[in-house]
Amino acid sequence: MDRFHELEVFVAVTEAGSFAKAGARLRLSPPAVTRAVSALEERLGARVFNRTTRSVTITDVGRRFLESARRVLSDLETAEKEAIGETATPQGHLTITASVTFGRSALSPVVCGFLSRYPRVTASVLLLDRVVNLVEEGVDVAVRIGHLPDSGLIAKRIGAVRRVLVASPDYIARRGMPASPAELRLHSVIAFTGLMPNREWRFLNGQKQGSVSLGPIFEINDAAAAIQAAEEGHGVTVALSYMVSDQVRRGKLVPILDAFALPPQPVHLVYPQARLVAPKVRAFIDFAAPRLKASLDQLTWTSAEDAKSGTSPTLR
């Protein structure tokens, strides 16, 4: 049996979650799907699925094999298109993911501009406040904020952001400006759980990193809602600099304890490693990287003074 066919069936069963659905997608009968999976397992000498009458679950062996199988199929598709001259023009469907707030503030207009430039490409944008497994979830490109772990992804740095504490001028007038991290315990804290999962704020005092445990009056898993609560004078919240740059420059929010902020966190565009990168992915990276970098330069600052003055020097 054709090995590429076995890989195609294996990936389809993994994505569909059942032999029957995979067969319908590939226009194969259930016995044909079973034969392809059995042939793959016999050649590997291990099971790739645990099967019962009610469910199909991928094994550890299958999970390890999945990324390689997808890469082989992708390379084959790209090679075939290259052979007939299709790779010169970006085309097909592109799936991109980013955090909710970054997607709203910076990514969406860039994607719209890209689609205008390349009319043969369509796109889906997934705004999620979690780390997406690009290979398993079929995502082409992701925006990642923070230091990257070792992985099989290719990364292109497009800028940096800072974690900042902010509160409204009205709140500061009523409760005072904290002079040290320890004084945050005396204040009302609004916790966006994505940046304060353990109810603590990490800071830098000289060359030494520390943390202060806090008791939030309000916890929420949406950054925009936490920022709005801070704007309304309900307390202090933590955000990434690009999330609150407009509010700070308009005087709606004030940076707090900026001298104790941690170093900037890098922002990258990442995509799965492949021998031949799909033209749509390569074109999007080339189009989006300088535009997202420009947006980040405008949406962040290196000090409270820069925030107030509206300057936006590039972070390094």
TrEMBL record:
Pfam families tied to this protein: HTH_1 (PF00126), LysR_substrate (PF03466)
Domain of life: Bacteria
TM helices/strands, residue ranges: none
GO molecular function: DNA-binding transcription factor activity; sequence-specific DNA binding
Keyword Cytoplasm among record annotations: no
Alphabetized PROSITE patterns for the sequence: HTH_LYSR (PS50931)
Example of a GO biological process term: DNA-templated transcription
DNA-binding keyword on record: yes
Ranges of residues in domain HTH lysR-type: 1-59
UniProt keyword terms in alphabetical order: DNA-binding, Transcription, Transcription regulation
Family statement: Belongs to the LysR transcriptional regulatory family.
Protein name in UniProt: LysR family transcriptional regulator
